[in-house]
Amino acid sequence: MTSLRRYIVTKMGEDWIFLVLLGLTMALVSWTMDYASAKSLQVYKWIHVELKGNVPLQYLAWVTYPMILVMFASLFCHLVSPQAIGSGIPELKTILRGVVLKEYLTLKAFIAKVIGLTAGLGSGMPVGKEGPFVHIASICAAVLSRFMSIFSGVYENGNHNQDLLVCACAVGVATCFAAPVGGVLFSIEVTSTYFAVRNYWRGYFAATFSAFIFRVLSVWNKDAVTITALFKTNFRMDFPFDLQELPAFAIIGISCGFLGAFFVYLNRQVVLFMRRPTALTRFLTKHRLIYPGAVTLIISTFTFPPGFGQFMAGELMPRECINSLFDNFTWTKLSGSPLPPGLGRAVAWLHPEVSVFVILLLFFIMKFWMSAVSTTMPIPSGAFMPVFILGAAFGRLVGEIMATLFPNGILFDGIVYRILPGGYAVIGAAALTGAVTHTVSTAVICFELTGQISHILPMMVAVILANMVAQGLQPSLYDSIIQVKKLPYLPELALGHISKYNIFVEDIMVRKVKFLSSQSTYRELNHLLDMTTLKTIPLTHTLFSLLGLSHAYVTSIGKLVGVVALKELQKAIEGSTRSGVRLRPPLASFRDASRKSKKHQSSTPSSPTWDTELWVEGVTRAGGGRWCGTYLTMTSREKLRHPG
């Protein structure tokens, strides 16, 4: 009993220590990055204010400052670790699928990602922190695992490390938004085809601890009086909305579904254009700093406050945009009247000669393409926060329209309640981010970001409707990037494609397999090692996804007859060859003929379940009986199955 207690305490203690270290490290990194990027933006705005009255110099400073930071981020990542470029979530999804991507979880990638992302956020460009920070947290978990393996061998286990990477995803989201519950749910939705329940407590503990430390550091730095929500709202709780407003919330959700799908499409088209072998793309590839520099120049020119930026609140930085879009004032009622105290930075949305509707519409249209293009720059960047701001602007636009249509508010039980455009902004933010990422947990993230759940019902309605529309039109942004980059990730089996369920393993397996048996001689082993470049030699859809397989070895009556790798299964599901031509499975006609002949045989000596029996064995059974979760043997008549 004593040894059992010691064993349990030791194992629990190791994970507790690891998760505390992970949460503490990521909270410190997140706060440091926010502090540095905030100081950079303060300098940016200070220069602009100091040069007031000299428009040419103002413009020069306004475009030069972000160009320097963005090009520095691009160059630094290119020299230190090109794997730090982009979001990181698509690559992490692939890694969690069991695929090894070299150099993505190294200390070099960590340094490049942190420094590059800090510079990108400090430039004021529409780039987000959430995606790259999930990658940063995963690198931190991988490095900590290697460190902890000195004290315990459990951290050398590949399956255990995969579990810790899932926890790291939750920590990454939690430290970005101080949203531990939403962080865990978002990490499950985005990265996991199947989620092991044993990781639940790890994810919640690490995410809660990291979010707590992150907000404590803000209090310590006197950025906040106490631990509060990141973008705290003050909507009334007694009657935040009326049921008559539900159609407007539904319209926001459906519209955000279409807009989210179009955002993913536009982002993918920009990436595909940059990958086409044209003279322009070859020139931009050769001179790597021109593309990010040109994109930054164009965006900063449009947002220049004395120029076109005055018609789209161009002077506001990302956090200022969110805080102002979520405020309690109805801007359409402020036009032509004295500005009330407490309006703050929201004054940038009010122009003496232009309607609020025009400014919000221009902001949404311009920031839409700016966000889609800026996230393709070769720097660490995410799309969650830019899309979040876009959704907030769209929701605010609908809210201001509703406030105009019902200027006196909505009558209920003898009491008139005014429309809250800020509530519409929160719902739009959750709906558009949900549509782009194909997640529902964005609603929970919004609850934690704002500190209020007053709009829980309309928000869930809008997010679900947005997902229904977007999922029928486009893949998620992360899956879209996986497709463009051709990462070895297994696509989902669509519910409507019945033909995929009739593909057998024998149709797609590789038949020429080098293998060893218990009767193999030393000479045969030596010859095999000399003649092949394979790193693994066999002795031993749901299957691949659930077990994280990279290969499945196919047997017939105990004899090895073929092997199915991840790429064969991927091509079979996509239903195309490398050239993109759709082909009929090679043994389909033979199988169909055999099926017809079997229909006339009412009895058979074998059981129907015999051909679909699976044998799951460890690769190193003789060497200690350890299950590695990488290989699996099946019969040649085993079908591909839908994960559901």
UniProtKB/TrEMBL annotation:
GO terms assigned for molecular function: voltage-gated chloride channel activity
Annotated transmembrane regions: 16-38, 59-81, 133-151, 163-188, 200-220, 246-268, 289-308, 349-370, 382-406
Pfam families xrefs: Voltage_CLC
Superkingdom of the organism of origin: Eukaryota
Keywords: CBS domain, Chloride, Chloride channel, Ion channel, Ion transport, Membrane, Repeat, Transmembrane, Transmembrane helix, Transport, Voltage-gated channel
Annotated Gene Ontology cellular component terms: chloride channel complex; plasma membrane
InterPro entries per UniProt: CBS_dom_sf, Cl-channel_core, Cl_channel_volt-gated, ClC
Record region (Disordered): 591-610
UniProt topology in membrane: Multi-pass membrane protein
Signal peptide, first to last residue: none
Subcellular location(s) of the protein: Membrane
Protein name: Chloride channel, voltage-sensitive 1b
